[in-house]
Amino acid sequence: MTRIVVAGTGYVGLSTGVSFATVGYNVTCVDIDYEKINLLQKGICPIFEPGLQEALVENISLKRIKFTTNYQLAYSQADIIFIAVGTPELPDGTANLSYLKVVAKDIAMNAKRNLMVVIKSTVPVGTNEIVKEIMNENALQHLNIDVISNPEFLREGSALYDLFNGDRIIIGSESQAATELVEELYKPFNLPIYVTDVRSAEMIKYASNAFLATKISFINEIAMVCENLEANVEHVAKGIGLDHRIGSKFLNAGIGYGGSCFPKDTTALVKEAELVGVDLKLLKSVITINNQQKLKLFEVAKSILGDLTNKEISLLGVSFKPNTNDIRHAPSITLINQFLKENTKITVYDPCALPELRKVFGNSISYSTNIEHAILDKEATLILTEWEEILQFDLQLYEEFMKVPLIIDGRNCFELDRIKNTNIHYYSIGRQAVNPLLKLIGKF
Predict the structure, then answer these.
(1) Does residue 251 sit in the same domain as residue 398?
(2) Does pTM surpass 0.90?
(3) How high is the mean pLDDT of the chain?
């Protein structure tokens, strides 16, 4: 039986480990975070990801997966090691490879047999070669360690679904034998496999995220034009998305992208290109547009309400997308900071991410465990995340609970015709306002 070890139990590492266990492999997940490993050993998932908790418990009960901080023992017994540690953004925008390098050295120093190291972490082009060099410098001379690029394309909120229903598996390898072993490992997933060289595989990950981010910023720019020309960006997006060359995905106008991938990876690619003398003007514009878009709802609120000092508003949804508690680079962070500068009184609601938000803002804002309490007596409600609870909330209750039934919707959650049957003052992205409180010069 192939002995699989996954180094890192974050979002990617834990999802990867659980997925391999689900198809029948024996998996050991390693992390130096004792608290996290203790939770996992008890069957408690430390991150919110639909289906992951249930799959974790099932695989523990079947003894297919285990968790440890004893990386020396785990690495010494492994046949295949997946590296899934974080590569966070450094102050200059480049990727921090320090965690990856530490793990690579630890693997090499504890390896007792020939093995394969598969890098799932998002890394700059050329990183696999750096890891290979670390392995050669620190491993026993008679050992053969192959290093393979196998980038992940998981979406937070649907990671397990993506693992079993993805578009492709990318393998970057210089060894035919190693490639065949990884292909065999992935057979139970029954997904298309594309094999390329290592450097191209590393670039595929960055280029994929950069292109999707570009689609988001593109439609948000089109939304600005639609607002001023009285067109509906949703109709425009659907119309252009019907062209199979374009496609409809990632053409939802809103307040921009966030999370752990797009912001970090777009910036890292720009920086990496600069190192080789390439100026990625398009991608720089994508980043600029996205940063501006995060303040969109603040600008609308200030245009309508004027002086925001002591104004009481509610924010619904603070995670960067539904079905996750991840607030990294979320538009909510930017918005809350901006409102606090204006001395606005803020109450936030989110079904999962409030504990994470509290770590950032403490007692400077108020927190609510339900929508009714969050919007009570508020002068405006801003929708930042399209959680199902928010989509299904009775519109009439905004009229009943709010001081002023003003909704500024950053995710275009509601059909305009539905809003027209209410007394709600409704502003959204790239669409005309319904029951506007005032005529805005240049719209928003």
Answers:
(1) no
(2) yes
(3) 95
Q: Check whether residue 73 and residue 170 sit in a common domain.
A: yes
Q: How many angstroms separate the CA atoms of 39 and 61, rounded?
A: 15
The count of other CB atoms within 10 Å of the CB of residue 440 is 15
Residue where a domain stops, chosen among 167, 196, 225: 196
Longest dimension (CA), the chain: 76
3-state SS, one letter per residue, for 357-376? HHHHHHHHCEEECCHHHHHC
Which segments within 256-391 are labelled E, that is strand? 312-316, 345-349, 366-368, 380-383
Residue 81: which H helix or E strand, with range?
strand 80-83
Q: Does 102 have pLDDT greater than 90?
A: yes
**End of a domain among 149, 164, 196?**
196
Say yes or no: 299 and 364 in one domain.
yes
Q: Are 240 and 252 in contact (CB under 8 A)?
A: no
Handedness of CA 112, 118, 122, 126 (dihedral sign): positive
pLDDT at 444 over 50: no
Q: Are residues 343 and 420 in the same domain?
A: yes
The answer to whether residue 436 sits within a structural domain is: no
Smallest CA-to-CA distance from 150 within 101, 185, 201 is with 201
Full residue range of the structural domain in which residue 377 is found: 294-427
- Render pLDDT for 180-232 as a digit per residue (tens, 0 to 9): 999 999 999 999 999 999 999 999 999 999 999 999 999 999 999 999 999 99
| Residue 160 shares a structural domain with residue 68 | yes
Decide if 290 contacts 209 (C-beta within 8 A). Answer: no
Angle at 210 between CA 208 and CA 216, to 5 degrees: 110
Task: Please give the pLDDT value at position 442.
Answer: 37
Does the pLDDT at position 384 exceed 70?
yes
Which of 226, 261, 352, 413 does the annotation list as catalytic? 261
Is 261 annotated in the active site?
A: yes
In-domain check, residue 112: yes
Look at residue 442 and tell me if it is in a domain.
no
Q: Is residue 439 part of a domain?
A: no
Which tokens in the block code for residue 294?
């995060």
Please give the pLDDT value at position 437.
87
How many structural domains is the chain composed of? 3
The structure tokens listed for 344 are 């606005």
Instruction: Please give the Cα distance from 153 to 261 (Å, whole number).
Output: 10
Residue 149 shares a structural domain with residue 279: no
Q: Domain holding 325: CATH number?
A: 3.40.50.720
* Across 335-354, average pLDDT: 98
